[in-house]
Amino acid sequence: MIPESAVQKFRESLRGQSFCPGEQGYDAVRTVPNAMIDRRPAIIARCVGAADVIACVRFAREHDVLVSVRGGGHSVAGKSVCDGGLMIDLSAMKGIRVDPVRRTVRAEAGLKLAEFDRETQAFGLATTLGLVPNTGISGLTLGGGFGNLMAKHGLALDNLIGVDVVTADGGLLTANASENEDLFWGIRGSSGNLGIVTSLEYRLHEVGPVLGGAVFFPVAKTKDALLFFREFAETIPDELVIQAGAFTTPDGVQVFGVAACYCGSSLSEGEKVLTPLRKFDSPIADIIGVMSYLQVQSMFEPFFPPGRYTYVKSNFVRALNDEAIQAMAEYAGKSPSPYTFAPFIEHWHGAATRVGVTDTAFAHRHYSYNFMAWSSWDGPSDSEKNIQWTRECWEAMHPFLATGSYVNYVSDEGDAFARAAYGPNYDRLVALKDRYDPTNFFRMNHNIKPSLAAPAATSA
Ligand SMILES: Cc1cc2nc3c(=O)[nH]c(=O)nc-3n(C[C@H](O)[C@H](O)[C@H](O)COP(=O)(O)OP(=O)(O)OC[C@H]3O[C@@H](n4cnc5c(N)ncnc54)[C@H](O)[C@@H]3O)c2cc1C
């Protein structure tokens, strides 16, 4: 228990707001999009700058309090919110400055994808971010960052030039290619294990308009569509990113959809590239067309409203052979929930896969596909059957999956699963953890355990 006077003094020291249980605003701030997560921090600090973040780290250290760090709050495992500790909420840190001449942007850690894209697109620029506009730039970038520009420009973290980071001792470091290079290496893939990033600098690229949208097939055609998808994926250029999966449209039709975004400068070339997809079989609908980059980036928004229960199983694919495709086809259209995207497959290729496995902490550079069973439903009474179905769908694919998984999609599956998410870079990350966070102060994440970790208290 921390003396009330110390809590009061800490709260008064912040420039941003803070919330304790029972106070107005507390419930809204502790709530994250995945309704499965219902945790109650003892204090929430809504930071407005690096000084607030430093104050939080020093307070938590002094009083031995568990911390969690919230960027956009989209971690399916709910890693941004803790029970009984201090939640360091960065979501009010929204500063952003584009340098259109150097083609760079400095962005604070609380920005969401849509906010970031809007500012950079004002100059016709963009960098790789994810597909759902409400996701936070921080968590997404620190874990990887798969998105529409990844084949042409790399993952989000491949576009990082540098970060400011508050480390476990409460100091602030700059990490980039020439300062604290080891920390910069680790930040790019270690998903918040090494410190609290307060701002991120990215490289930008000229982007838009694009050819974007999706083609939908009857769910019964999943197997044929997947066989085509695999063949098509082998031929496409870096300008095109595609994903495919079974889901239910808002008007209740079960479909197998292939989403596409072509970001090249010649849209007539894009039309040619996309022709085989648009000519394949007899689609129910084809909504591919010329659109702004902001439009393609908001395409998935209606499918992921906050407040649904969500559970995800995901791994990279070792072999997308005919048997794997058959296994996926057998589960298409069978989910107990109309909000589920499963089975779902992302095609990883191009620039993101040409970076060396050890060049950044993000190790999974040589897989062509990432498999997901992404289940969402309305309320707790449906949890058991949906979680069970998700596991069965993943089990059916298990023989074809790699052990490695994308850390940003991992639900809480225990230490071994988290370890596999860091793949062959795990030991080097442990060495960095020993150096920058030897007591495992930052452990509300898919955790990299320091070799010398001493357990710390968990409540305020
Ligand atoms: C609907 C939906 C769609 C998604 N689509 C994509 C996609 O297209 N591409 C993709 O790559 N991923 C996608 N993701 C996964 C997404 O990248 C992760 O959930 C990511 O963690 C979200 O970041 P966040 O800041 O919103 O999350 P948070 O829950 O706030 O944070 C996630 C983790 O990062 C840590 N963290 C956050 N900010 C910081 C910081 N500034 N410093 C240190 N640690 C920090 C947190 O403590 C936590 O451990 C999606 C997720 C959802 C729910």
Looking at the structure, what is the overall shape?
globular
| Text of the CATH class of the largest domain | Alpha Beta
Radius of gyration: 22 Å
Count every helix, treating DSSP H or I runs of 4 or more residues as helices: 14
Average per-residue pLDDT, rounded, comes to 95
What distance separates the N and C termini?
A: 6 Å
CATH arch. level architecture of the largest domain:
3-Layer(aba) Sandwich
Q: Which distinct ligands sit in these coordinates?
A: flavin-adenine dinucleotide
Low-confidence blocks of residues: 456-460
| Strand element count | 19
- How many domains in all? 3
Strand proportion, as a percent range, falls in 15-25%
Largest sheet: 8 strands, antiparallel
Structural class by helix and strand composition? alpha+beta
Please estimate the helix content: 25-40%
How is the CATH topology of the largest domain named? Vanillyl-alcohol Oxidase, Chain A, domain 3
Q: What does it look like?
A:
With about 450 residues, the chain is of the alpha+beta class. Helix content is about 30%, strand content about 20%. The longest helix is centred in the C-terminal third of the chain and has 15 residues, at about 385-395. Strands 12, 13, 14, 15, 16, 17, 18 and 19 form an eight-stranded antiparallel sheet that branches. The chain has helices at about 5-15, 25-30, 50-65, 115-120, 135-145, 150-155, 180-185, 220-235, 265-280, 295, 320-330, 385-395, 415-420, 425-435; strands at about 20, 45, 65-70, 85-90, 95-100, 105-110, 125, 160-165, 170-175, 195-205, 205, 210-220, 240-250, 255-260, 285, 290, 310-315, 340-345, 370-375. Strand 8 (about 160-165) and strand 9 form a beta hairpin. Flavin-adenine dinucleotide binds next to strand 3, helix 5 and strand 10.
